[in-house]
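For consistency, the fold was encoded as tokens, which produced the following:
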Amino acid sequence: SARSGAHWIPNGAHVLEPACGSGNMIAALLELGHDPRLIAGVEIDDLWATHARVRFSNRVHIVTGDFLASGEFATAAFEVVLMNPPFEDNLHVAFIERALQLAPRVIGVFPSSVEYSQERDRNLWAKKAYVARRARIPYRVKYGGAFSASFDSEALDIRRREHARAPAEVLNVQEEVWTW
């Protein structure tokens, strides 16, 4: 659970996991005692979505669909979106932006460069989101298939920006280093 940031989510929170795949982050929540009725997942690949439904004996609401295009959860009241989104074509930024439309808080595993990325992401950090907590993951996470790259990674607790960006904002980020 520490590998996903799931332990940062208070018990009783209504949580969504987009791109849930087989549901490893959902499993982390359940291991921590979260109520399965307060957890939902969405997965674009029907085979993975079916696998997650079976894995959790239909106790967790799993939807087959495109998180970025679906209106499935538009009226839901999520407190947190927990994610390990796809990174190709800068999709992780689109996932963060969509998640912040659905919940005031996003917790996820990201390449460590996500906060310090190119100009294309400046709008996200300056106008839509800020990092409240960061944990360095002590191993390089491998993303994708057998020949994909691995990245230095971190877990981030991202909050919806309600105020203008402050010059000293980065000094207020809680820093952690996970070991195992």
Remarks:
- The helical segments are 24-31, 46-55, 91-102, 122-128.
- The chain has a mean pLDDT of 85.
- The chain is about 20% helix and 30% strand.
